[in-house]
């Protein structure tokens, strides 16, 4: 019997795939049978990740915020590995700072990386997916796309934008069988989150207290969700934002 969750013979691109949630997304896609190319700014981290991930993992050094590189990145991957079947727009940055102190440059830098880059890369990849009448794009959203979280105005704005962009692109490209979905992680145990929470115990207790499952998630939970959305098991799913949050968004 065919396995609807199989990603055999699929080529995936995961931005920011060398660490954190991106690393676990990459690992889960590999375990499902895909060949995965990861990108990031730090070559050493990418090299280390690929050595650990195995022979079906490859890397290209790329800064997604430099939009002048976007078209060339897609061309390089297509020429070297074949057309991209799955794009995961995972790369992102954050900054916790009172809104009144955030400069225009700081705000713009986060919007550029988290939102503008996701659109530009989706557009260039879609140019190769639409003629083939197949493709999956997965954006990484956040609980910040659902809540008004203090001290992260730019990040919240960028993830709210990702929520809207996901729906708009799904509507635009659905007729070409190119599916566009988002995953909205809840509070996931990564090094970044642990650092942030350890410096703000009130926020940690608030996050945990309103999560019905009474625990933080693991990066693999996001990876498994990505496999589902990228696979034929989700063949009629597009335009959704899948919360992987232990019920945080509906907790009281």
Automatic annotation (TrEMBL):
InterPro entries: KR_dom (IPR057326), NAD(P)-bd_dom_sf (IPR036291), Sc_DH/Rdtase_CS (IPR020904), SDR_fam (IPR002347). One of its GO terms (molecular function) is oxidoreductase activity. Belongs to the short-chain dehydrogenases/reductases (SDR) family. Residues 10-186 form the Ketoreductase domain. The keyword Oxidoreductase applies. Its EC number is 1.1.1.-. PANTHER family: 3-OXOACYL-[ACYL-CARRIER-PROTEIN] REDUCTASE FABG (PTHR42760:SF115), SHORT-CHAIN DEHYDROGENASES/REDUCTASES FAMILY MEMBER (PTHR42760). Keywords: Oxidoreductase. This is SDR family NAD(P)-dependent oxidoreductase.
């Amino acid at each position: 019997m065919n396995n609807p969750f199989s990603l055999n013979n699929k080529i995936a691109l995961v931005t920011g795939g060398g660490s954190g949630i991106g690393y676990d997304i990459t690992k889960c896609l590999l375990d499902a049978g895909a060949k995965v190319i990861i990108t990031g700014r730090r070559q050493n981290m990418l090299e280390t990740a690929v050595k650990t991930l195995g022979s079906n993992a490859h890397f290209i050094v790329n800064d997604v915020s430099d939009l002048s590189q976007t078209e060339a990145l897609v061309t390089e991957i297509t020429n070297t590995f074949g057309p991209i079947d799955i794009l995961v727009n995972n790369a992102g940055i954050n900054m916790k700072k009172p809104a009144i102190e955030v400069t225009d440059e700081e705000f713009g830098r986060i919007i550029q990386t988290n939102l503008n880059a996701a659109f530009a890369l989706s557009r260039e990849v879609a140019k190769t997916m639409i003629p083939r009448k197949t493709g999956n794009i997965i954006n990484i959203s956040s609980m910040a796309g659902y809540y008004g979280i203090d001290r992260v105005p730019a990040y919240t704005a960028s993830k709210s934008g990702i929520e809207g962009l996901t729906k708009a692109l799904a509507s635009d490209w659905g007729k070409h069988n190119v599916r566009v979905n988002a995953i909205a992680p809840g509070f996931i145990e990564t090094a970044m989150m642990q650092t942030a929470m350890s410096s703000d115990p009130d926020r940690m207790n608030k996050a945990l207290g309103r999560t019905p499952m009474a625990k933080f998630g693991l990066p693999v939970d996001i990876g498994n969700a990505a496999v589902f959305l990228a696979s034929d098991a989700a063949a009629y799913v597009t335009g959704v934002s899948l919360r992987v949050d232990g019920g945080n968004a509906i907790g009281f």
